[in-house]
Structure prediction request, 486 residues.
Amino acid sequence: MSKLFSEENRAAFSKPLNLDNPVVIQVLGICSALAVTSQLKPAIVMGLSVTVITAFANVIISLLRKTIPNRIRIIVQLVVVAALVTIVSQLLKAYVYDVSVQLSVYVGLIITNCILMGRLEAFAMQNSPWPSLLDGIGNGLGYAWVLIVVGFVRELFGFGTLLGFQIIPESWYVENGGWYMNNGMMVMPAMSLIIVGCVIWAHRSLNKEEK
Amino acid sequence: MATKKFKCELCGYIHEGDKAPASCPKCAAPADAFTEIVEAGAEAPAKKKGLDTSSNTYTIIYASVMVILVAFLLAFVSSVLKPTQDANVENDTKGQILTSLNIDIKASGFNVADEFKNVQDMLWNGTELVPYEGKFLSSYGSAIKAGELHVFVAQAEGETKYVLPVTGRGLWGGLWGYIALNADKKTVYGTYFYHESETAGLGARIGERWFQEQFNGKPVFAGENTEAVALKVVKAGASKAENEIDGVTGATLTSDGVSAMVQDGLSVYLSFINN
Prediction:
């Protein structure tokens, strides 16, 4: 048991959450961070789906790593990811139809998420299944928290709601005689890049000494 | 590097190392008196254990096997799950039609399939409504193109309502919707819209009830002119005339798509609406 959670393995899990975060430090997966974060709920679901798929893909590639021909390794990784994503989306359609309608394009977007390919190539190809699983979960969650932060800010200031519930009191709004207006900028895709930029800024100044 | 063995031809001394010693420590013979001992079986340089994973043959076989396996796996998953998925889609479509009639299908204990038994699937043949006998359709784009005009007839609030399917295009993909008209066919009773792949939080909000409910009670035509559909979606907050609906902020193209879909979709049914 202690071997399973050795220092190295714990690092594989915890580093991507903070010091080696795929979005904040490596700036991967920015495209989907832009597309799905205008509201909190899709951001959470996307974060979790990526976590699940990264974990599985990492384990599968790690099991196959000694047999994969070097010259077509990227293609093999892509096939594994695409097959996994297709199966997951089929399962969602059959058993949780509501969720699959809500996710619509995001499930497909997972295939093109650079974090997945990055982890498969950089970690799973060299490591055994158990650390790869931890690394996959760690990176997925590292990606998820950034998405959730961005989604939180954008939904709160863009719509005045969180997860669809009104947070900013209706009486504050200009229409109801108040002084407040939703910030239309927050709804625009470009805003997510600015927020990710702010997150990176905050994260770097907090971790200055550790580098 | 495995060490090689060298034998002194003069005294038989065996030296182990990478090359022969400068002189034999036993009989002081010079280096060229030594000959290398080649052990049987070790003549060829040792082959790497297992398969050569970078050879062309291996690569091609690996790729083919992988593709065939994955293809079978996906085909298997798809065929096993297909009936469940189709049932879900059909149920979902029925739910959408019911939603356009302002029925809350999310209410607990609500059974879409049971409730849909009160809705008749009819066809408009240009002069009258005839019952539709075929299999329930889950999308109406191709049916409308083929001139097969479905009309769902339902009873609500004590009068007959007609639900017309419409389809169109948004920013990224297809849009579809169901527009329920009151018995006079000139005002909207309720609507339902959904999309294939509009942007979450922007275009995708046309699927939310607050947007759809804006249509309720709106007249389809402006004034007495019943030849041109006047109902349309305008920029958010810009609706003035009674035919105009507020679009979604930040999703002008999707809103325009809904507008075109409503106008084109209802225009196809003009002969029914004016009947």
